[in-house]
Write a structure and sequence with these properties.
184 residues; 8 strands; five-stranded antiparallel β-sheet; 2 domains; alpha+beta; elongated; single chain
Amino acid sequence: MALRRTAAPDELPVSVDDVRFDLRLIDTSQDDAIESYIAAAVEELDGKDGTLGRALVTQSWELILDRFPCASEIKIPLPPLQEVTGITYLDTNGDAQTLATSVYAVDTASEPGVVSLKYGQTWPSTRCQRGAVTIAFTCGYGVSSDVPESIRSAVKLEVADRLEQRSDNAKAIDRLLFRYRVYS
């Protein structure tokens, strides 16, 4: 299994203005540093390598599998899942095929989201090679204001720590993020 991001988020979950407001900063001289710290804090949390194991702001990914599973469902990483935009595979002849939506259902309410076979359907046979199946999906909470406030607050605390070169907020940040971590 491999994950590849195909479209990065259009925005970060916290803006420079959000941080300046929280820290009561009027001066804009530190805006470049704040923007850099926001990006670094989000990078620590977001995506396949982030500590939360989830997507924050809307982004697109591909889940690449060597074959369809024996089971009737496939868990889609990086919750929350918004939609599956397509499933492609290499058939036994090596020709690219698109799996019809009549074959599978998508459960976006579960965490993680799930693609499952509809009643009476089976996964098609694939060519025996690495990366024979690709599931394209969109994930994340939506726009920055849709990201849970606990996560946004943790990002702002991390930025404040970096700006003021302190580390006394580490426990508070952990508490804010604990319930959003995805464990595999």
